[in-house]
Amino acid sequence: MYPHDYHLHSNFSCDGKASIVEQCISAIQKGLPEIGVTDHFDLHPGDECAGFFRPIEWAEELDRARREFEGRLTIRAGIELGEPHIYQAECQALLASYPFDYALGSLHWVGAEIIFDRHYFRRSPDEAYGLFFEELERMTRVGGFDVLSHFDVVVRVGQPLYGGYDPRRYEETIRAVLKNCIDHGMALDLNTQGLRNRCQLLTPGVEILTWYREMGGERITLGSDAHQPDVIGANFDAAIEAMQAAGLKYVTLFEQRQTKLIKVL
Ligand SMILES: [Zn+2]
Ligand SMILES: [Zn+2]
To answer: How far apart are CA 103 and CA 100, in angstroms?
Structure first.
């Protein structure tokens, strides 16, 4: 049994395919004791989800689900903040407006370019990955969130196009990102979505997880990044295996932005 799924979306995300209640039912069926609903809060003007999140209706539906599933499922109020270093004031205002349990910080845009579009990868792999990690370093240096989402998510589209991704080529910048996370007490979202698409990679994978543990990091959350009910908790066997290979032992739980570590290995 897995302790939680801390990265999933409902139809309060523009790309979500299920209601909060449907996601809860699936989590219970899969035997998960706890989930975090992390819908997108995007402000980049080019983003398809920009301006889509409706915090008041979302909070009402989340509270309804908490009442409906009380005693059967712990439902955490999360949020996936897009580029929180660029939209600091708006993100902090949102976090102050409701008792969120935790906020994911996500980098989907490098400047004016979204990293899910092939166009971003017209450059060399070193340039595409290098620019992404440099921006990720700036984002984590600013902080203002609790969990760094899908560390090297840029490989979701990059790996099928280029093949042969080796994080060691960007080790110095990646270690700077990890140091920022450790300094700010931010956890890493061990995200399994890449295992369900053509990239076939966990984000982050064993290499980065090992550096994190060597540097003293121990905070991990598990995330399917499910946008539909059937993949909640999917591929967590691979995530736990990667934790074990990296020597990581704990999964981090959040309540009102306070952490609790539980031993899973
Ligand atoms: Zn994301
Ligand atoms: Zn997500």
So the answer is: 7
For the CA of 83, the nearest ligand? 1
Q: Which ligand neighbours the alpha carbon of 108 most closely?
A: 1
DSSP 8-state symbol, 98: S
CA of residue 177 to ligand 2 center, whole Å: 19
The vertex-123 CA angle with 119 and 124, nearest 5°, equals 140
What spacing in Å lies between the alpha carbon of 195 and ligand 1's midpoint? 15
List Cβ neighbours of 49 (8 Å cut-off, separation of 6 or more). 13, 14, 15, 40, 42, 82
pLDDT in the model for residue 38 = 98
Ligand 1 midpoint to CA 239 (Å): 17
CATH number of 5-263: 3.20.20.140
Ligand number nearest CA of 226 is: 2
For residue 120, the CA-to-ligand 2 centroid distance in Å is 20
Which pLDDT belongs to residue 2? 97
Mean pLDDT of 224-234: 98
- What's this model's pTM, rounded to 2 decimal places? 0.98
DSSP state of 122: G
Average pLDDT over residues 37-43: 98
Closest-approaching ligand to the CA atom of 114? 1
pLDDT digits (tens, 9 = 90+) for 96-144: 999 999 999 999 999 999 999 999 999 999 999 999 999 999 999 999 9
Cα–Cα distance list, 3 to 35, 221, 233, 241, 265 (Å) = 9, 9, 10, 15, 12
